[in-house]
Design a protein that fits this description.
By secondary structure, the protein is α+β, with helices and mostly antiparallel strands. It has six helices and nine strands. It has a nine-stranded mixed β-sheet, sandwiched between helices.
Length: 163
């Protein structure tokens, strides 16, 4: 990781992006919004991430974990720990799939609370940014996420797990 300022870190590899997501997951207090192509290879099946998210969801029933993917089908095969969380916390964790008209969006990102985010410039690229104190940037990404969320729906491959 290459630090520009104390609160903004350039991410130069996929491993650094995964580490940035771990940082966000370890810092969240109220909400985490994550958009990814399919959640494969971004650490959502690791035991440490599972524990971080489980503790976050257990800490307050009002905490929210919203995950948005272009393709939710691989989650059952590649992220069983995420599915376990969905089963246990279906009241405050949701996984939605984007509609076809949003499939052209290619910049994954995560927003924690009101001032932290991590984003990559493209699904297939490794470069990105981790911002730990950027309320304006986090607000823009959260707004983008909520616009996408509003037109997305639960996918049957993940919705059935939360029953």
């Amino acid at each position: 990781m290459d630090s520009d300022t104390q609160d903004r870190i350039n991410l130069l590899s996929t491993a650094e992006y995964v580490s940035a997501l771990d940082t966000l997951c370890g810092n969240i207090k109220n909400s985490l919004y994550v958009f990814d192509k399919d959640f494969i290879n971004c650490g959502f099946n690791s035991a440490s991430r599972f524990e971080l998210l489980k503790n976050f969801l257990l800490s307050n029933p009002k905490n929210q974990l919203l995950l948005l993917a272009h393709d939710t089908r691989p989650l059952a095969q590649y992220c069983p720990r995420l599915i376990i969380l969905l089963q246990k916390f279906s009241h405050n964790m949701f996984i939605y799939q984007t509609p076809k008209n949003l499939q052209h969006l290619t910049e994954p990102f995560a927003v924690a609370d009101q001032s932290q985010y991590a984003r990559r410039f493209h699904f297939d690229g490794s470069r990105g940014i981790l911002a730990l104190n950027d309320g304006a940037g986090a607000s823009l990404l959260k707004s983008r996420f909520m616009e996408m969320w509003a037109v997305s729906r639960p996918n049957t491959s993940t919705a059935t797990f939360s029953l």
